[in-house]
Amino acid sequence: MKKDEIRKKILESLNWRYATKIFDSERKISEDDMNVILESARLSPSSIGMEMWKFIVVNNKDTRVKLREAGYNQSQITDASHLIVITYRTDSVDNLTKERIERTAKVLKDGQGNLEGLKSMLENSITQKLADGTLDTWIKSQAYIPLGIMLETAAMLDIDTCPMEGFNSEKVDDILNLKEKNLKSITMLTLGYRGADKTIDYPKVRRDFDDVIEFI
Hints:
The chain has 10 helices and 4 strands; from the N terminus they run ααβααβααααβαβα. The protein is an alpha+beta fold.
């Protein structure tokens, strides 16, 4: 595909997608397409490479019914083809840092002793965030990066989505036993194919380019 075709496809996909409220419960996403969407989440960038997230794909129908109750009875939770609960990790930052070093050493096939510079950078960055009180916000905000990438990947595959924050996170955490896994839910993503939704043909409401983009 030529670059001008790629540009066109990206913008067409973003203009086509919308927060789908009504899904066709009979249509299912193929395993191949779902694997691409999930892989795009795994490959998402994260601040200092910490990857402080986990994606819970909920296939169990009974569990999804319970999650619908925790989600104020929003039909997307049960009717969409797939449901992903996006969580962030709550275990200690020391543990996350240690894991990051070990993961890097394994991938680079290098000894951890040669990664002292990286270790120092990670520790200094986290220490600074602890000092200025931004650590919690920083950890939570990372989870929205893969959410955005999954939205675009799905749109490129002509798959509908609805990102959701309207749910009782405490109830969701209890249903999925997240606390014992050192995880906390922050948002959910439903994926599938649009059904008889009257909002499909609504024009997209966005601020003008010049209102949101400034060149200096």
